[in-house]
Write a structure and sequence with these properties.
The longest helix is centred in the C-terminal third of the chain and has 35 residues. Among the domains are: 95 residues, no CATH class; 121 residues, Aspartate Aminotransferase, domain 2 (3-Layer(aba) Sandwich). Helix 4 runs antiparallel to helix 13, helix 8 runs parallel beside helix 9 and helix 15 crosses helix 16. By secondary structure, it is of the alpha/beta class. The strands form 2 sheets. It has a 7-stranded mixed β-sheet with strand order 2-8-7-6-5-3-4, sandwiched between helices. Strands 1-11-12-10-9 form a 5-stranded mixed β-sheet. It is globular, with a radius of gyration of 26 Å. Helices cover 42% and strands 12% of the residues.
């Protein structure tokens, strides 16, 4: 028998490259898997569980630590090395310097520790390497994504005819939603034979609140709308958008001869976790004939919990909803999703077919034109019509097998299990807010979190003493505290600006965080404040 490794003998580990023969490669692959897993566990328990943020913590310092004297990227490696050498470099050069979402006091942006089942799904997705664009490139993968999308539609409360797709995250999902606003709803309002472009995008108005994610404005800009298209309206003291100011803006704009087209609201804002008043905004959108989009990238996961689902009401009333499983479904990056009440709108907007993707076409272009008889037309008909080709539903061509990790996780925990983790986070966030509210040296805004984001700040010497400080000095104190906490490794918080003032922000999406961790976090902050 020919040596199956002969073409790869130039490498020190040919059995890890020429893997077609189990007799020569399987044992080596299993040893490699053990080594990779061991390196992962060394990182998890040697780094991630001991420090919330690696060392050094400063940008310039970490850049020097990674690149060394070169100060920047060097040339690509020319010669092969063993996998053990690569893993050793990961252990030494990368592992000590990560943001560690598994650390129980790492309460960063929206970066949860991914569940084991999610990691398993990601590993399997990479091995199977399904391209979820044209059906033939990942046939079973298309069905897995279809199934996961159905689960998300059910979670939102959509019925028959709804559909969606997995995306890289909320930014892409919101972009696709705004493309639907333009090419489906604005087209219908304009009554044009083609999707509106250029001058047809002028005089249009889309309404949103001041806590809406930046991706809505970015999407409108990239889709060709003028800057004045997006009308940003003030939220209430709880950072929630109400229908009344939107209704006033719509009436004002209609009187000025402008064309209101859509309302985009948020259910779980990045800043505060606030939830706009979705049902009343939905009623307004319906009354005014507007498209209604809800960005529930973070908050949509609350629907997993029977107890807490009511915190994000009315999602089923939206025309489109963004949900990000790599936020509060505890998934590894990257995995977002957009679901649409009428799934046909995705095809209507994105169905463009190059000649090399022939699967799923009703008939080859021009095949029936001038056909001599029915037999010729039948021969020209695409026998694969009706296939599920995701490239026709969104912006991406080549698409990762993103859905598998959510599939493995949902199977492993069930909706009830995922809902339990969401409830644990909500309870920990409520505990953090309560501890701050009862203390003289802490302040929260808002006082009671709607979901699992808590914005708070330390008041040096207590509320009376802090009142004598300049606002700028008090803001700087929060930034120093966040930096000191990061450097200590004992926790990690982001910062944000609310009502013009700086706050510490705890995004509690870590299912390992307990009330004891919150007590320790606050004690650490107080100690750092006096250091």
């Amino acid at each position: 028998m020919d040596d199956p490794l002969a073409p790869f003998r130039w490498h020190p580990e040919p059995q890890l490259i020429g893997i077609r023969d189990a007799a020569t490669s399987r044992a080596a692959l299993e040893r490699a898997g053990d080594a990779i897993w061991r390196s992962s566990m060394d990182w998890l328990y040697g780094q991630a569980m001991t420090r919330a943020f690696g060392l050094p913590t400063g940008y310039a310092e970490l850049r020097r630590a990674y690149y060394g004297d070169a100060g920047g990227p060097g040339p690509a490696p020319e010669q092969p090395v063993t996998l053990d050498e690569v893993l050793a470099e990961f252990d030494q050069r990368i592992a000590p310097h990560t943001l560690n979402s598994y650390h129980p006091r790492a309460l960063s942006y929206f970066t949860p520790p991914p569940l084991l089942a999610s990691i398993a799904g990601e590993v399997l997705a990479q091995w199977t390497n399904q391209g979820i664009d044209v059906w033939h490139a990942g046939p079973i993968g298309a069905f897995v994504e279809e199934e996961v999308v159905r689960w998300l539609c059910d979670l939102v409360g959509y019925g028959d005819g709804s559909f969606g797709l997995c995306t890289s995250g909320g930014v892409m999902a919101n972009f696709i939603a705004m493309a639907l606003v333009r090419d489906v709803h604005l087209r219908a309002l304009r009554g044009t034979p083609r999707p509106p472009r250029g001058a047809a995008l002028e005089g249009v108005r889309i309404y949103t609140g001041d806590q809406t994610h930046f991706s809505i404005a970015r999407a409108l800009d990239e889709l060709g709308f003028p800057p004045e298209t997006l009308v940003i309206l003030p939220s209430d003291d709880g950072f929630r958008l109400h229908a009344a100011p939107v209704a006033e803006a719509i009436a004002r704009d209609r009187a000025a001869g402008l064309l209101p087209v859509a309302i985009a609201c948020v259910a779980g804002s990045t800043n505060t976790g606030s939830v706009d008043l979705v049902p009343e905004l939905a009623a307004l959108a319906k009354a005014e004939g507007l498209w209604f989009h809800v960005d529930a990238a973070y908050g949509g996961a609350a629907r997993l919990s029977k107890r807490d689902a009511g915190r994000v009401p009315g999602l089923e009333l939206a025309d489109s909803v963004t949900v990000d499983p790599h936020k509060w479904f505890f998934q590894a990056y990257d995995l977002g999703a957009l679901v649409v009440r009428d799934g046909r709108h995705l095809h209507q907007t994105f169905d463009r077919s190059p000649e090399y993707y022939r699967g799923g076409e009703g008939a080859t272009e021009g095949a029936t034109e001038g056909a001599a008889d029915g037999a010729e037309a039948e021969a020209a008909h695409d026998s694969h019509a009706g296939q599920l080709n995701f490239y026709k539903l969104g912006m991406e061509g080549t698409r990762r097998f993103r859905a598998l990790k959510l599939w493995t996780t949902w199977k492993h925990l069930g909706t009830d299990g995922l809902g339990r983790l969401v409830e644990m986070n909500d309870d920990v966030a409520a505990y953090l807010a309560a501890r701050c509210n009862e203390a003289d040296d802490m302040e929260t805004v808002p006082a009671v979190p709607e979901l699992s984001v808590v914005c708070f700040r330390h008041l040096p010497g207590g509320a009376a003493a802090a009142a004598t400080m300049s606002p700028t000095a008090l803001d700087a104190h929060q930034d120093r505290l966040a930096a000191a906490l990061e450097a200590s490794g004992d926790g990690w918080l982001s910062t944000t600006t609310l009502n013009g003032r700086t706050f510490l922000r705890a995004g509690v999406v870590n299912y390992l965080t307990t009330e004891a961790d919150i007590d320790r976090l606050l004690a650490t902050l107080r100690g750092l404040a006096t250091a």
